[in-house]
Specification:
The protein has helices at about 20-45, 55-60, 65-85, 95-105, 105-120, 165-170, 175-185, 185-200, and strands spanning about 125-130, 135-140, 155-160. It has a three-stranded antiparallel sheet. It has about 200 residues and is mostly helical. The protein binds fe (ii) ion. Fe (ii) ion binds near residues 27, 159 and 164.
Length: about 200
């Protein structure tokens, strides 16, 4: 089985002016694609080639196969990232709003906590909103790290590697995080993930 280079869920210029077509040309077309190509090269002819992407992530982590894990987790994280953003404005569902109120005291509290975490991640990595049972939490992971392997359910993510924002914002990660929080979050995607988590629980 070959791991797919999945299509972007929108046109390359759909997130403008916040994330430029030029950024997606590189971030999706070069970086994401390179993770897919390197992963397929690494698993070709091995037992991993029989597994799904999620199974590859879990098994390569357990077997300390760093090269496979890094590329597999980055493929998964980027697919999740594209879905975490939407060209049109969305609002959280009633259930998700209630959970955000409980965890962060409201949307302003969520915003502050997410921004602090995303800014505070030193170097390359990711900021996440996850469901841990009924509770929402904000987490960060370094490099290719993913909460998928932590028994929590990811709802949303933001890539804070410099390749995600340098063309549009240069070194100003704070402005990129604001653009995501103010204009780009796909709350429909987060709500679907949250509802699926509650059904499985
Ligand atoms: Fe990235």
């Amino acid at each position: 089985m070959t791991i797919e280079f999945t299509a972007l869920p929108y046109a390359q210029d759909a997130l403008e002016p916040h994330v430029s077509a030029r950024t997606l040309e590189f971030h999706y077309g070069k970086h994401h694609k390179a993770y897919v190509d390197k992963l397929n090269a690494a698993i070709d002819g091995t037992d991993y080639a029989e597994l799904s992407l999620e199974e590859i992530i879990r098994r390569s982590l357990a077997e300390s196969k760093g090269g496979v894990f890094n590329n597999a987790a980055q493929v998964w994280n980027h697919e999740f990232l594209w879905e975490s953003m939407a060209p049109a404005r969305t609002e959280p569902s009633a259930a998700l709003t209630a959970a955000i109120d409980k965890a962060f005291g409201g949307m302003d509290g969520f915003r502050e906590a997410f921004k602090a975490a995303a800014l505070g991640q030193f170097g390359s990595g990711w900021a996440w909103l996850v469901a841990n049972g009924d509770d929402l939490e904000i987490r960060t992971t370094g490099n290719a790290g993913t909460p998928l392997t932590d028994n929590v359910v990811p709802l949303l993510t933001l890539d804070v590697w410099e390749h995600a924002y340098y063309l549009d914002f240069q070194n100003e990660r704070n402005r990129y995080i604001d653009a995501f929080l103010d204009n780009l979050i796909n709350w429909d995607f987060a709500a679907r993930n949250f509802a699926a988590e509650k059904q499985a629980a």
